[in-house]
From TrEMBL:
One of its GO terms (cellular component) is cytosol. Keywords: Arabinose catabolism, Carbohydrate metabolism, Isomerase, Manganese, Metal-binding. Transmembrane segments: none annotated. It comes from the Bacteria. This is L-arabinose isomerase. It comes from Murinocardiopsis flavida. The keyword Metal-binding applies. SUPFAM superfamilies: FucI/AraA C-terminal domain-like, FucI/AraA N-terminal and middle domains.
């Protein structure tokens, strides 16, 4: 699942009125829209059609954007244009919208004439258009900035990433192997409400289908995967060939099912695997490897957390599934880990990831090969997707730092110590009051502003602790 830049349609709006007064103005302002798009190179792939000057232009342009499978629409006022010409098109638009309140020239100078006034009069067109969208109930972002500056790139880039994430979730299918863990209340939700609000569709994968897919794999694919692991990881010499072969078959079978069904995120529950009776071990290393390839994942059948990891991949890169294991008051930090699943791409660059043989009593099966690493020190962000009942969803977010903490030699699962900016006491008090779940996504870097932009576009609550 290769990552890509957000794909954005640039909708430049003007009107025919000025053509007679300023011959060539349409071509001039169209070139300006192309320059704006070029300024966004590296943060978005922009599609720039001809300027919109009539209602028919607007509706044709919007249809084309939706047919091109874009992530969002950036509206630019090339001159003033009456909003009623675009109201219907924007009211029915299914893509996230950002209104760029910009103009070609950053400063009003004594050299300006009526032509310059006309070229730079987008501000009142933006007001008319924004008013129409507000009255139509269309959510949108606004960016007022000098379009040649870094602030413009940064803010539009943040909106574009959020738009890419929103549209990705609208198309997402989440696979659940077996069922969700019994009694785990914070993962419970209304599937239809999740589909209506955010878009993900849940599909159950029978363990028997996973088993049949495993048994049908050609040996060459299994050998190829193990050879790749030998190159990527330090492989524990205690791992027998049979253990590695079985693990590789599980990983390849899961991925094949995901590809065949168009599934972008999944979750397995240890009881569903163990109770089936046909599996020798749990697919721990498989989860880590597939997260590293861009799939969302969560343990124990937790669809909400799998959606959060998928969103973290798209919004900030390299989403890592984890949970808060224990508090460490002397360092004001929280030990982050899980049973053995984690995105190895967030591991420390100065330590090779290890593929280890480790005992795991949970599930009552044989030892599962596990990818072991420590999370890279530096800024990091946690995010938890919360169902509040009905169609209310909330994202609880904490920014902080992964510490360069001592090794924990007996801990044979991915781990790291996260120190929240608000401190353990303040963060956890606020996290619990907000209903933050015990499974979450971790991304390297500070991304609270990105998550806030996502929540605004997705129509869900944002709560930073």
């Amino acid at each position: 699942m290769p990552e890509r830049l957000p794909r954005i349609g640039v909708m430049g709006i003007m009107q025919e009125l000025y053509d007679a007064m300023l011959p060539g103005i349409t071509e001039r302002q169209a070139a300006y829209a192309e320059e704006v798009a070029a300024q966004l190179a590296g943060v978005a792939e922009c599609t720039v059609p001809a300027p919109v000057r009539t209602r028919a232009d607007a509706e044709r342009t919007v249809r084309a954007f939706e047919e091109q499978d874009l992530d969002g629409v950036l509206v630019i006022m090339l001159t003033y244009a009456p909003s009623l010409r675009v109201t219907r098109a924007l009211a029915g638009l299914r893509l996230p919208v950002c209104l760029a309140n910009i103009q070609p020239d950053p400063a009003v100078t004594p050299a300006w004439d009526m032509a310059d006034m006309t070229y730079n009069q987008g501000i009142h067109g933006a007001q008319d258009t924004a008013n129409a969208m507000v009255r139509a109930g269309v959510p949108f972002e606004v960016v007022t900035a000098e379009w040649r500056g870094a602030e413009f790139r940064e803010r539009v880039g943040r909106w574009a990433r959020a738009a890419h994430t929103v549209t990705a979730l609208r198309r997402l299918r989440v696979g659940v192997v077996g069922y969700a863990m019994n009694g785990m209340g914070d993962a419970r939700f209304d599937e239809a409400a999740l589909l209506r609000v955010l878009g993900p569709e849940v599909e159950v994968i029978a363990p028997g289908e996973l088993y049949r897919t495993m048994t049908g794999l050609p040996p060459s694919e299994v050998e190829e995967l193990m050879a790749a692991e030998d190159e990527l990881f330090d492989v524990d010499p205690r791992l027998a060939k049979e253990e590695r072969t079985d693990h590789a078959r599980m990983q390849l079978a899961i991925e094949r099912l995901l590809v065949e069904r168009g599934i972008g995120a999944y979750s397995t529950h240890f009881d569903a695997i163990a109770e089936d009776g046909r599996f020798a071990r749990l697919p721990m290393a498989a989860a880590s490897a597939l997260m590293a390839k861009g799939y969302g994942f969560a343990g124990e059948g937790d669809v909400l957390a799998a959606v959060a990891v998928h969103a973290g991949h798209r919004l900030a890169g390299d989403g890592h599934f984890t949970e808060m294991y224990a508090m460490d008051f002397p360092t004001d930090s929280i030990l982050m880990s899980h049973m053995g699943e984690g995105n190895w791409r967030v591991g420390r660059p100065d330590e090779r990831v290890r593929l280890v043989k480790r005992p795991l009593g949970i599930g009552g099966l044989d030892d599962p090969p596990t990818l072991l690493f420590r999370i890279r020190p530096g800024p990091a962000t946690l995010a938890s997707l919360v169902s509040l009942g009905g169609e209310r969803f909330r994202l609880v977010v904490a920014e902080g730092e992964v510490l360069d903490s001592p090794e924990l030699p007996a801990l044979e699962m991915p781990y790291g110590q996260f120190r929240p900016d608000s401190g353990v006491r303040g963060c956890m008090d606020a996290w619990l009051r907000a209903g933050g779940t015990h499974h979450m996504v971790l991304n390297l870097g500070r991304h609270a502003a990105d998550w806030e932009a996502f929540c605004a576009l997705a129509g869900i609550e944002f709560h930073q602790v």
